[in-house]
Amino acid sequence: MKGDVTILAVETSCDETAAAVVRNGRQVLSNEVASQIKIHAKYGGVVPEIASRHHTEIIDTIIQAALKDAGLSYGDMDAVAVTYGPGLVGALLTGVSTAKALAYALHKPIVGVHHIEGHIAANYIAYPELTPPFLCLAVSGGHTHLIHVKGYREFDLIGRTRDDAAGEAFDKVARVLGLGYPGGPAIDVAAKRSDSGYMDFPRVDIEDAPYDFSFSGLKTAVINHIHGIRQRGEELPMADIAASFQQAVVDVLVGKSLLACREAGIGTLVLAGGVSANTALREHLAKNAKNQGVRVYVPPIEYCTDNAAMIGCAGYYRLTAGDVSDLSLNAVPGLPL
Ligand code: KG4
Ligand code: ZN
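^ thats the input. predicted complex w/ zinc ion below
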């Protein structure tokens, strides 16, 4: 493709309605995110039907705001990129249908993007010098993946969670602690009030699968511990439990990621996904990676959680490689990487 490439990107896979305008992959001209967190918080988690309905109500407004912020109009767009999976089917469908309608009306290509590919690409926006290959730890509400990113569109999944995703474990433990939804940020904040080691919750290793994760045993151990304290009528050491649980998750994430770097001889580790906003994870990883001579890239906080700029960036690399979709594009809730 010759000249500038300007992409309108849409992301509606979960509870953020997002649109962005991205130029040449890494230049973000606008990035609008409308979070539904307050709406879902009173139910203790995302209610899929409510998420879909809310997306349909505001998607047009969000797209128009993204264009206005960028100072551009529909006619300036070279393509439309959209997350088509994985995620909640109704939520994804809102974005996919909207993007298809726009691509059809504008006579422009439509590019379907994998949500995790987007999270990885968030780092390209923040770090112009970053190019594949590298190892990526993608940690979100739905995923805990160790990915060897061999090229912009070439991914080798070398490890994954066998049960709960890291973010899911944060959300469930936070709910039992009464910290509300979303749990990750709440545990992050609560843990900062702890100054003791408190206790060692289990760090799980899986035999013959050193890069796979398991968080359900840890989650159950923490929840049982909380129930025990409540049954004895004792006061809950909220901050200490939050910090001890968080440290157990962080130890496993950091330990396995750096092990993979060592064994595969990879010198660059990239964090991606909502959990990469976690303070302890960022600090612990930076410190340990430095000792091992591994260079770490961590997305800026606004690009850790769901947004459309990252979809525009990933979409650019698909588009320029000729990997475009067509109007038969559908939402794929369980889309593999
Ligand atoms: O990537 P994301 O916005 O949505 C998914 O693709 O799932 O990630 C959301 C997840 C939630 O589980 C949330 O609790 C977690 O990221 N999260 C955090 C933090 N901020 C968000 N987990 C730990 N510490 C945080 N500071
Ligand atoms: Zn996400």
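DSSP finds ten helices and ten strands in the chain.
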